[in-house]
Amino acid sequence: MKKNKSAIKRARQAEKRRIRNSSLKSMMKTYIKKALQAIEEKKDPSVIDECVRKAISVINKAASKGAIHKRTASRKISRFTKRVNKLLQKSA
Fold first, then answer.
1. Going from the N-terminus, what domains does the chain have, and what CATH number goes with each?
2. What is the average pLDDT across 12-21?
3. What is the pTM of this model?
């Protein structure tokens, strides 16, 4: 157990942040999987476009809230977009 008030408060804050960040990261992964699944199931192009836009939006939101670094977000978006384009060309 922590000894002083400030250490106790920091531990409490760190726990809140950890939970918030893990939630944002989980949501980010979920939307990426949904978009890739929509492509593989060959859904309507408008549905695919909406899923991809939402996934990119969620990645940017996680970066703006500090759950992931902005360069990590940029790298994830770049790799995700390349993967989406590759799958779309393959299915076309």
1. 5-91 (1.20.58.110)
2. 96
3. 0.86
